Amino acid sequence: PGRKAQITTHPSGMRRAWLEMASKNAQLGAAQTLSLQATQEARLTALQQGLELAEGVQRIECFDISHTMGEATVAACVVYDKSALQKSDYRRYNIRVKPDDGSPLDSGAMERTQGAVHRAAITPGDDYGAMRETLTRRYRKVVSGEGKVPDLVLIDGGRGQLTVAEEVFAELGLNDVALVAVAKGEQRKPGLEQLLRSGRDEPLRLAKDHAGLHLIQQIRDEAHRFAIEGHRARRGKARTSSSLESIAGIGARRRQRLLARFGGLRGLLSASVDELGQVEGIGRKLAGKIYQELH
Asked: 138-186: per-residue pLDDT in tens?
């Protein structure tokens, strides 16, 4: 506002070259976007036909469970809609796990996520229990009016995980959602996946070059990546917290100062001995001890 603007209708020289380059880049970008969209729509159509689904499948949600020997179990849900992965709709679910010795969970293990404070803990490594909890938490909210009902739900797993999904959906009254478990094939090789469909006894195997299978692999791999990423972050946080609490001379106040100074556990792990020693109440000797314990 208040500034003069000069408009050149027939630029020449360098200005003309830049304008032509910008126009070509815009055309190329538009062509690539249209080509990708057409490819995704073709994959979705092939998926509907390959799985013998009703037309109109648009929203697909896929679930995967990740943990290390039952530790730091995290479930992930990724969403495919409008011919693209919708990252803003992704969700992770921390799963409470019972201690191996059967003792009560300590305060650090009793994670409280919004709306699910009193969830029962599962046995370490119980993927069926983790899947049941995850599906129940997600779709109970959907039934109550929060979120959208998917057209198709993919479960990374075998017949057992599919059975769990069938039971949860029956309990919640979601009878119109197609359920498919994506079971790894021989030697876990891509292209050999078996697709287990709800209500069908025989598994389905699509050809390696089937466009529908490629879409399933894309969504499944994204769920796997998202789950592993969440699991590693949770595991690292838990182990670092445990290490910090076990260091002699680090009480609640010093621990709080350290975390506040470095913005959390990730920043604390990247801090040097000199940086640790600058925190109030942490001398050079204690800083060295902290650094050694955390690394």
From this structure: 999 999 999 999 999 999 999 999 999 999 999 999 999 999 999 987 7
Let me know: does 26 contact 19? Beta carbons within 8 Å: no
User: What is the SS3 assignment for 286?
Assistant: helix
Query: What is the per-residue DSSP string for 175-197?
Result: -SSEEEEEE--GGG-TT--EEEE
Kindly report, residue by residue over 3-41, the tens digit of the pLDDT.
888 887 788 888 788 877 887 888 777 766 655 666 788
CB 269 within 8 A of CB 259: no
Helix spans in the chain (H):
13-50, 127-143, 159-172, 211-246, 252-262, 265-270, 273-277, 284-294
Residues forming beta bridges with residue 255, ordered by sequence position: none
Residue 155 CB-density burial (10 A; 0-12 exposed, 13-18 middle, 19+ buried): buried
Which DSSP string do the residues of 4-61 spell out, in sequence order?
-----SS--HHHHHHHHHHHHHHHHHHHHHHHHHHHHHHHHHHHHHHTTPPTT---EE
Residue 98 clears pLDDT 80, i.e. is over it: no
